[in-house]
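Case study 2.
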Amino acid sequence: MATQTNITAETSEEQLPDDVSTLKMMVLTLLGRIDDLSGQLYYLKRQLFGKKSEKLNPAQRLLFENLYDEVKAKVEGQRQPEAKKPKVRKNANHKGRKPLPADLPRQIIDIEPTEEERVCSVCNNPKRRIGTEITEVLEYVPASFFVKQYVRHKYGCKKCESDISIGQLPPRAIDKGIPGEGLLAHIITSKYADHAPLKRLEGILKRHGVDINVSTMCGWVGKCADLLEPLVKRMHKKILQSPKINTDDTPIPVKSKKRKGSTYNGYLWVYIDDSKNVVFDFTPTRSREGPIKFLGDYCGFVQADAYSGYDEFFRKGKATEVGCNSHARRKFEYAMDSDPVRAARMMVLWGRLYEIESRAKKENYNSAQLLEARQKEAKPILAEIKTVLDEYKNQVLPKSPMGKAITYASNQWEALIRYVDDPILDIDNNLSERTLRMVVIGRKNYMFAGSEAGAWRAAIIYSLVAGCKLNGHDPFAYFNDVLRRVSIHPADKIDELLPSNWKKPNSGTEDDSVVKEQMLQVA
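Prediction:
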C-alpha cells in the first residue's frame, strides 16, 4: 500500500513522487481534505447566518424516480378534495380568543347607563334591567412584597413568676433567615426557569424598594439546593429502576481558582426515565467516568447520541444501546449543499419513518398498535435505507459531509433500528435535547457558574425545574409548596414531593389569599 505524502504550499514539482498509485492516493487525500474543510465552512456559516430548520423542501422528492409516483399520488389526492371544498375565509384556522383563566382574581366594575338612557324615549316609562354583557380585560399589577410578622405571645404564671410558655415558630426553609418560601421560590424560578441572572434580579428587587445583594441570594439558593437534594437522589434511584433512560450532555462554563484561565468547560448530563423523572449530573470533564458512575450497573435501554464516552459503559455493562435517528438524519441534512441528490434521498426515507411516528402520536396508538406499525411499515423503510447506505458508501469520499453521514449511520445501524422492536423506545433522543435547551438558554444569560459547588446546585435545581416542565407543573407553585413541606415531610413518603407525583394543593394557601387581596386593593 502506498504511503501518504504531505503536500505544502512550498512543494516543488521535483519533490513529487513518480509512482502513479502514490499520486492517486495524494489526490484522494487532498480531495478529502477539501471536502472536509468545505463541510466545516458550510456548517459554521449556517450556524452564523443560515436557517436552523431541518425540513426538506417537498420539491426535492421529485429528484427520485422511485418516489415520484408516491409524491404524485399524494399531490393529486390532496388536490381532488380541495376542488370540492367551499371557499373559506383566510383566518378559518383561527379558533378565537382563548378565555382568561378562571382562577385569576376578578375586580368587578359595574357600568350603568346614564339616567336619561334609563327612561324610555317612546313612552317615558322607566326601563328595567333585562340582562348584562361582560367584557374581560387582562390587567397587570407589579409583583408586590409583604412582610409576615409572627407575633409570639408569651404566657407565665403570675403567682410564682416562672414556667414561661411562648408560641412556636412554624418550620421554615431557611431557619433564622428573612426570606419566606414564596420569595425563595421566586428567586429559583426566575434564575433556573426564566433564565434571569441574580444580578438582574437584584435590580428588579431594588425597584420595589427591597435591597438584597447577589451574594445573599446565592447563599439562599445554596440552602434551598441542600434541602431539595434528597428529592433528586430519590429520582436518581427511580431512574435506575426504569426500563429505559434518555441521556445527553451540554457544556457549562465554570469558574475555578484551581484551573488556568477565567473559566473552563464543565458538563451537565441529563437523565430521563419513562415516568418523567429528570436528574442533571455535573462533571468537571466530559470523560466516560461521568455516565459510568451515574448509571452504575444499570441493565435496561439507554438512548443517547454516538458520543464515545458511552462506549466503555456499554462494553462493560449489561445495558442496551439505542441510537438517535434524529442525529443520523441531521448529518445528511448538513450534506445537502455539497451532495443534494444523495442527501435529499436519504432525508426523504428518514422522513417516511417520522411520518409513522407522527401518525401514531396523533392517533394515540397503544403499545400494540405502535409495535405493529413499526414492524410492518418502518422495517421495510429501514431495510431500504441500509441498502442505499451500502450503495453510496463506495461512491463518496470518506471525509466529505456525505461520507461522514454515511459512516455515522453505518456504525450506529444496530442501535438506530432497535426502536422498532420495542414500543417503549423512541425513534430519537430529542427528549433529552429539548430538556437541555433550558441550560443552553440560561448560560447565555448568566454566562458561567461561579464555582463547581454552584454548578452542583444548578444541577439539583435544574433537575426539579425540568421535571416540573415535563409533568406540566408551574415551577413557582411547585417550589412554593415543596419548600414549605420538605423539611417536615415523612421520609417514607418522599415520592409525593417528586415532580412526577406532586399535586398542586386544591385551594390556595393563606399567603396566596393575602397576596390576591392586596393586588385587588392596588388595582
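Residues 247 and 432 are 6 Å apart (CA to CA).
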